[in-house]
Design brief:
Blueprint lengths: L2 E15 L3 E8 L3 E7 L18 E8 L4 E9 L8 H17 L7 H16 L3 H17 L18 E3 L3 E3 L8 E3 L2 H11 L13 H9 L2 H19 L4 H8 L6
Amino acid sequence: MQTEEKTVGIVVASNDFGENDKIITLCTFERGKISALVKGCKKQNAKLKLASSLFCFGEFKLLNAKFTRVTEFNCIESFFKITQSLKKFYLSCAICETLKVFMKEEELYPEAVSEAVNALKNIEEAEGAGEEFFFIRSFLKLLSCFGYGIEGGGCSVCGTKPVFFSFENGLCCEEHKAGKGEYLSENALSVLEQALSKKDFSESTHGSNSEFNVILKKLDLNTVKELFFILRHYFYFCSDKPNLPLKTYFKEFVLND
């Protein structure tokens, strides 16, 4: 029996299907992760063209039959400016890939969907190193939504200054480091601690906040490379497998390994 329902979500993947259609992956508040067919969306002036676009966030009307199909779409945010910058695009793709990998079908993670939408908003509006900072912050928050959170504020065992990012135990001092992980430079540690803090940086996307500017000055190219290397391998540790799309998004503009 065919049924119709409405759900709010974000498009985290969009793939061609046949001559004029696409299959999208939606991460939604009400139904978790689902795949849906968008018919005719590749035609010029197609009514549902926007519904098949990567990053689009809105309300989808779905026809549940043999294949779930999008029949209507009300856009809340298209994040169009993200597609105008290669760096913003790859950072946003990495956010969506993370959400897609960890969110299971029919399992609800509304906090993760909200965080992904907030990440795209901040990446879209930020400038310079602010784009990387908001990516790092949201990437860690997303993993936390799925049970892989890292706590700031000192060594996870004794509370002293950490020097090591342990994939198993979080931030650790020299005495308590254990398992797989990487040592942290002073700049990397400082940026990580700010990213893990509960401070609200949402009004600082254009770098007008003096405290925020201090953080960004520490996020030079070498620190970005260091942190992205660590986060990529932490992703592999949490998901228990390498992820080629994520590696591509990271490598395209900062990594050379």
